[in-house]
Design goal:
Blueprint: E1 5-16, H1 31-49, E2 57-61, H2 74-80, E3 83-93
Parallel strand pairs: 1-2
Antiparallel strand pairs: 1-3
């Protein structure tokens, strides 16, 4: 008998990010605050669809600390203002 492993999504972490331009206004105290709000808003939007069990969702804010592009250009800063979906899987076996 051949055993098959099956992967299932165990958790979806929604990560908010910003560029490195400091922010401070009535709505956001700093970039971490902005990135956390960005992730939480996306989590609420995904949860509102009812397609994913909310127990499998989490949101975190990483601020400016995990850029994917240079913050030296407008284009790079735009790429760093993003939300990432990180899928964690669990392997089930027979």
């Amino acid at each position: 008998m051949i055993s098959e492993n099956i992967s299932v999504i165990s958790m979806i972490n929604i990560e908010g990010h910003t560029d490195n331009v400091p922010i401070h206004n009535d709505e956001f105290s700093d970039n971490w605050d902005l990135s956390t709000k960005r992730a939480a808003n996306m989590l609420r939007m995904v949860a509102s669809t009812g397609l994913i069990d909310v127990n499998k969702l989490s949101a975190t804010g990483d601020g400016e600390f995990h850029p994917i592009a240079s913050n030296d250009t407008a284009e790079g800063r735009a790429q760093n203002r993003r939300v990432d979906f990180v899928l964690n899987k669990m392997v089930l076996s027979d």
